[in-house]
Write the structure tokens for this entry.
Amino acid sequence: MIFGSIKSWRSKAAVARFARRFFGVFGICWLLLEPAALWRPDDLRWGFRGYLGLIVFSCVVAFIWAWPKYSVTRKLLASDTTIKISVGDLFDQTGNIIVGFSDAFDTDLGGLILPSSVQGQFQTRIFPQKERLDQAIAESLKDVSYTVDHGKESGKPNRYPIGTVATVEAKGSRYFLVAYTRMRNDGRVESDICKLSNALNECWKMIRVRGQHEPVHMSIAGSSLARIGLSRALLLQFIVLSFLDAERKESLTNQLCIWIHDKDVEHIDFVDLEGWLSGITRAA
């Protein structure tokens, strides 16, 4: 899905862009026709109907040109790296895929882990066998220190530092499982912008080492159960800024793709997002 639905026209930014495109098309057509009328005045004497036709033509062209799209791609001027934000399924992608986990790396699907969450979809579609996933995580984290929480009654008692990344491979892709939330003893997760920032920084470092410069795919981390408290649009911008900061220090991939689930589309104004991304990539 590239073009947005009719609902995407509800934003003021979309209407303003349509107005700009309309006057742009109308102005160009007028500038081309006015000099031509000097040479062929009889052929271009259209009157009111011709003027109305020009308005309709400009409206149609501007409407198509300004229709909000559900996919935005911009290239960094200083490198060959592109940033793509699009509506789609994260787990249909291949390459380096980031999946958020808790500090305990719990995998109790249906108990502690909601099946509809990003982690829940990851386990259902990529690692349906829980024991296999637990073994892969344990192998990846074997040299990482942890603390044992004896008060944690459900799930795994071992807690790892926020920002810990377990790297597992399956179906031709590398999955970077990054701990950016804390699993509370009552089974709920919590996080904040500082935890997310630290987790992203550590994840970029791991991808730089293990990612082989392949495309990086992720969803909008912290947008739902993590309870960070920021809108999806702000979280998306925060992720992009974190990536740009890491990319500026040393290149880690040729493309960052952030995938937005269909149910979250209404929370993102793609017209505003396109303008913001264009500006930030030019300045980076």
Q: What stands out?
A: The mean pLDDT is 87. Strands lie at 71-75, 82-87, 96-102, 147-148, 158-159, 165-170, 173-183, 189-190, 216-218, 255-260.
